[in-house]
């Protein structure tokens, strides 16, 4: 059985690595804000995402937080101000 | 009955307003990353937070996303790299 997770990723990564982090994350999740991605992925893919990011970042300087819910229904999302959904302009 | 919500706030706010947003949010929530706060607050306080932020930001330029869960147990948090918990150095 494939377990789907709803994942929010927020990152604070040094400028020299941030485009690499974004380019990596956009293969799996939707860009929602300058420093945040979200989306639904399987547990296996989530493990892959964490391994991939671990290779890109410097764990002594950068920070990535993952918030995961077993379903999007447990998490309500509200936006104040502009809602971004396009990453192409910054990568 | 007071309903407690577990709230994650991620923001992308112009530099001239970002300290005001941080100073406001730290009255209610815990700073967890450069652009993210989290914590448990009541529904009433959450409404107050949204009203306060609406007054600070420029909704045509800035973006704030709120992810809320009815309880922290529905949301798992994992950190890769450094874990921040101190805001005093930047405000």
Structure, described:
Two copies of one chain form a homodimer. The first copy, chain A, has 91 residues and is of the alpha+beta class. The first copy, chain A, has a single domain, classed as Alpha-Beta Plaits. Chain A is 27% helix and 36% strand. The first copy, chain A, has two helices and five strands. In chain A, strands 2-3-1-4 form a four-stranded antiparallel sheet. In chain A, strand 2 (30-33) and strand 3 form a beta hairpin. In chain A, helix 1 (15-25) runs antiparallel to helix 2. Residues 87-91 of chain A have low confidence and may be disordered. The A-B interface holds A 8, 10-12, 32-36, 50, 53-54, 57-70, 74-84 and B 8, 10-12, 32-36, 50, 53-54, 57-70, 74-84.
Q: Which pair of protein chains has the largest interface, and what are the residue counts?
A: A-B, 37 and 37 residues
Instruction: Count the beta strands of chain A.
Output: 5
Enter the CATH topology name of chain A: Alpha-Beta Plaits
Q: Oligomeric state of the chains?
A: homodimer
Number of domains of chain A: 1
Number of helices of chain A: 2
Task: Compute the average pLDDT of chain A.
Answer: 90
| Largest beta-sheet characterization of chain A | 4 strands, antiparallel
| Largest sheet: spatial strand order of chain A | 2-3-1-4
Helix content of chain A: 25-40%
Topology:
The structure is a homodimer of 91-residue chains.
Chain A lengths: L3 E9 L2 H11 L4 E4 L2 E7 H14 L6 E7 L6 E6 L10
Antiparallel strand pairs in A: 1-3, 1-4, 2-3
Helix pairs in contact in A: 1-2
């Amino acid at each position: 059985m494939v377990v789907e997770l709803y994942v929010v990723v927020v990152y604070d990564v040094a400028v020299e690595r941030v485009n690499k982090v974004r380019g990596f994350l956009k293969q799996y999740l939707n860009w929602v804000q300058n420093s945040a991605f979200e989306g639904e992925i399987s547990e296996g893919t989530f493990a892959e995402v964490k391994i991939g990011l671990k290779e890109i970042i410097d764990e002594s300087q950068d920070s990535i937080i993952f918030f995961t819910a077993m379903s999007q229904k447990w998490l309500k999302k509200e936006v104040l101000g502009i809602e971004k959904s396009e990453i192409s302009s910054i990568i």
